[in-house]
Design goal:
Distance between the termini: 38 Å
Number of helices: 5
Largest sheet: 2 strands, parallel
Shape: globular
Number of strands: 4
Strand content: 15-25%
Order of helices and strands: HHEEEHHEH
Oligomer: single chain
Strand order of the largest sheet: 1-4
Structural class: alpha+beta
Radius of gyration: 14 Å
Helix content: 40-55%
Length: 93
């Protein structure tokens, strides 16, 4: 709950994520929405809404159709996503 409360505070998130220069990726299930203590948290829809902005800042963004919060428990889906992102970076090194 502490994590989700911190998301609702006045954190200069755009400034922080725009300054990062390392390779960065975000992914979410497109339907990733849940309720915690009466607050609806829209992970997938928020990532989708800000996709263009994130990509302009250099982020790789993947939204996975057919998944919500349970995506994190699906290594058969998540590991290929991460490998697709990391393999080209690691093979260049």
């Amino acid at each position: 709950m502490t994590y989700y409360r911190s998301l609702l505070q006045n954190w200069a998130e755009r400034d922080a994520v725009s300054k990062s220069t390392c390779p960065r990726m975000t992914f979410a299930g497109r339907q990733d929405e849940f309720v915690a203590r009466g607050q609806t948290i829209w992970i997938g829809p928020i990532v989708a809404e800000h996709r263009d902005e994130l990509e302009q800042m250099g982020w790789s963004v993947r939204l996975v159709e057919g998944y919500g919060q349970e995506l994190g428990g699906r290594p058969d889906v998540v590991i290929p996503l991460i490998r697709e992102f990391l393999d080209p970076i690691l093979l260049r090194a």
